[in-house]
Specification:
Layout: E1 21-22, H1 23-29, H2 36-44, E2 48-50, E3 61-62, E4 67-71, E5 76-81, E6 98-100, H3 104-118, H4 133-144
Antiparallel strand pairs: 1-3, 2-4, 4-5, 5-6
């Protein structure tokens, strides 16, 4: 029997944690996404990129020090991997595994935009076509309430 290290010991373990992790698993484990499936789908759709802007696959390997951009609805979150995890961790433990690099001003802008959306401003999906009658009425009511001031007012359709 030889004393040579096997393949399991060729990669150093990080303080008892795993030596490597898939990107989709890591994003889910540090609570960036509610499910692993959502994390994998975001990677496939190009909503998760490396710090340099390169699009990544869900199976990309994560290493400590890697920077990631996660494109959310109103915000692009920049994070740095500090430690790898094998399974989902509690919310109180997340700051020890992830460093948030997103400027606080951008986070506050996104919070304001979400609040405005919840305040009743009509929400339409761009490119979804013409609004329905109910959507049109909601938009007209919103404009009448003064939320649309400075936009030229609404014009009647021929």
């Amino acid at each position: 029997m030889t004393d040579s290290p096997g393949p399991a010991t060729s990669l150093p373990a990080l303080s008892g944690g795993p030596s490597r992790a898939r990107l989709d698993v890591w994003l889910w484990a540090v609570r960036m996404f509610k499910t692993r499936s959502l994390a994998a789908e975001a990677c496939r759709l190009g909503r998760v990129t490396r710090g340099d802007g390169a699009v990544v696959k869900p199976s990309s390997l994560v290493r400590p020090g890697d920077e990631w951009c996660v494109h959310e609805e109103f915000l692009v979150r920049r994070v740095r991997t500090e430690r790898l995890v094998a399974r989902r961790i509690g919310a109180k433990l997340v700051p020890g595994h992830v460093t948030e690099l997103t400027p606080l001003a951008e986070v506050e802008k996104a919070r304001v935009r979400r609040a405005e959306q919840r305040m009743g401003a009509p929400v339409f999906v761009p490119g979804a076509g013409r609004p329905t009658k109910a959507q049109r009425r909601a938009l007209e009511a919103w404009h009448r309430a003064g939320a649309g001031e400075g936009e030229g007012g609404s014009e009647a359709e021929p």
